[in-house]
Amino acid sequence: xxxxxxxxxxxxxxxxxxxxxxxxxxxxxxxxxxxxxxxxxxxxxxxxxxxxxxxxxxxxxxxxxxxxxxxxxxxxxxxxxxxxxxxxxxxxxxxxxxxxxxxxxxxxxxxxxxxxxxxxxxxxxxxxxxxxxxxxxxxxxxxxxxxxxxxxxxxxxxxxxxxxxxxxxxxxxxxxxxxxxxxxxxxxxxxxxxxxxxxxxxxxxxxxxxxxxxxxxxxxxxxxxxxxxxxxxxxxxxxxxxxxxxxxxxxxxxxxxxxxxxxxxxxxxxxxxxxxxxxxxxxxxxxxxxxxxxxxxxxxxxxxxxxxxxxxxxxxxxxxxxxxxxxxxxxxxxxxxxxxxxxxxxxxxxxxxxxxx
Length: 357
What we know:
alpha+beta, Rossmann fold, CATH 2.40.50.140, 2 domains, six-stranded mixed beta sheet, five-stranded antiparallel beta sheet, 8 helices, about 25% helix
């Protein structure tokens, strides 16, 4: 499959500070690619360089085999959706969408045809005469995207476009955006610090930290097989123990600060005596397992129950004071558990993952 976007050895420095540090990646045609990272990691600077608003210090940006060096923003086959949408409140929906087409000098009959077609594609047929103030937050979002898509860009850039929405609408729009991208087939490059957004919507995700890509992979790969401690901490929730390797081989035996011995898999082969961090997902912990063969087991005290419907969890504490999050599975009832109870937990060695400190 051809690539809509290729970035090679891209660097952007501001004096002694390097905001984007030797980043390379390819985005296949028609895919949903997210760049995920904390505030200040360089993701917006990277997006601005792709859009042409910022010049790289070095490196290459290629869109559909065309080198973007020296190409101004208005000549690039990209469009950008901002967090605050930047819709014109004095114009109706149709005029907002037509704005770029009119600047291109397109005939009015073709403009009308394109507006009607794009409103169908974003599930807003017949909305052309509505005023912006009459729209819901999600509808405004789709109008902003329609205004970009009507220009037929090779790549649509989205800079945290759900950040200004309330939580419930944000959850709805994650699904809507994924459906919309699959329907229109345009390549989306999506910037976010919200790992849930990236995991739900993306075909591939690049996790960015301090100007570099830590790992690029599918949502499942990043969640199940993180390649660095940063990715393990940033993508999804994890419980973490610090410990020392006391036996090494196909699996590691790690002694934690609570003097517990855990058997687990390793990201790499570590020598005895190595200091490691052991990561374990909350859903990997089994509550009161009936069969403890091959499991690491230990007791904890229930501190509180964090009720969140299907995502409810226990906040527990080990005898030494180490806190752990434990997911409450939906296929078993644990209504009898109360704060203050002491319960047995177990986890399979394949569920843990170690990284050297």
